[in-house]
Design goal:
By secondary structure, the chain is mostly beta strands. It has two domains: 1-30; 40-229, Jelly Rolls (Sandwich). Helices cover 10% and strands 43% of the residues. It contains one helix and 17 strands. The longest helix is centred in the N-terminal third of the chain and has 24 residues, at 2-25. The radius of gyration is 20 Å and the shape is globular. The relative contact order is 0.21. The chain binds calcium ion.
């Protein structure tokens, strides 16, 4: 009798464990690979998508300036965007939740091509395709830029550009954009592993919002996108 109870208890645990495992596997922000990193609000290394897919439904490509850009998961397990529009066009893709407030977004970013306008950026506290903070790297100008975008076509500098770095093309950089209260901070890590703080400013425009990736007049790749809560 006791053995029978033990066996049925064990079976219940196994059944319940499987249920939990299946539930977690189904969550887009909670792949089994980040079970060891529970502090992430979000993690994507793009390894779980089919080549050529667009990252949906986790990532939502935005229609900006009446145009929706094509984003693609490449066979390297990165998400990329090949620019096909006019100079100044922006391709934006968003993920995450509207109520994320204090967090740091980390992403690997690589730009291919080096026209005067070509750049890539990561966005924090995004309300929609037009309203957010963003951190952009521009290889032609060797600059890291922190800006705010409010409404269609309105771009606002909220901090001086950081120019004390060489931004190469075809090379991975790690960008970190942090929002904590009204303080926005930015770091960049170069291919040698040197991490520099490029910005720390105060701004109250956006208190919460999603994360985003974008290209400006160029082709760029993004990988290892992580969002960690900041206490
Ligand atoms: Ca990857």
């Amino acid at each position: 009798m006791k053995t029978a109870i033990k066996i049925s208890l064990a079976a219940s645990f196994v059944f319940f464990g499987l249920l939990v495992a299946f539930y977690l596997c189904d969550k887009p922000y909670f792949s089994m690979s980040n079970l060891n990193e529970p502090k992430y609000l979000f993690f994507d290394d793009f390894s779980s998508y089919k080549d050529g897919s667009d990252g949906s439904p986790v990532w939502q490509s935005q229609k900006t300036w009446d145009k929706r850009c094509d984003w693609q998961i490449t066979d390297g397990g990165e998400i990329s965007q090949m620019w096909v529009g006019e100079p100044g066009d922006d391709c934006v893709i968003l993920a995450g939740e509207n109520d994320w407030a204090d967090y740091v977004l980390t992403a690997r970013v690589k730009i291919v091509g080096n026209s005067e306008d070509s750049g890539a950026n990561i966005k924090i506290r995004a309300q929609d395709e037009h309203d957010y903070y963003y951190v952009m790297i521009l290889p032609y100008w060797d600059s890291v830029i922190l800006k705010k975008h409010k409404g269609e076509g309105i771009d606002e500098y909220i901090a001086p550009d950081y120019d004390e770095i060489k931004i190469g093309t075809g090379i991975w950089y790690v960008l970190e954009a942090q929002a904590k209260g009204d303080v926005i901070s930015v770091w960049i890590t170069d291919p040698d592993g040197v991490r520099r703080k490029t910005h720390e400013i105060q701004d109250k425009s956006f208190a919460k919002g999603k994360i985003g990736l974008a290209t400006d007049s160029g082709e760029a790749y993004f990988d290892f996108v992580k969002v960690s809560a900041v206490e």
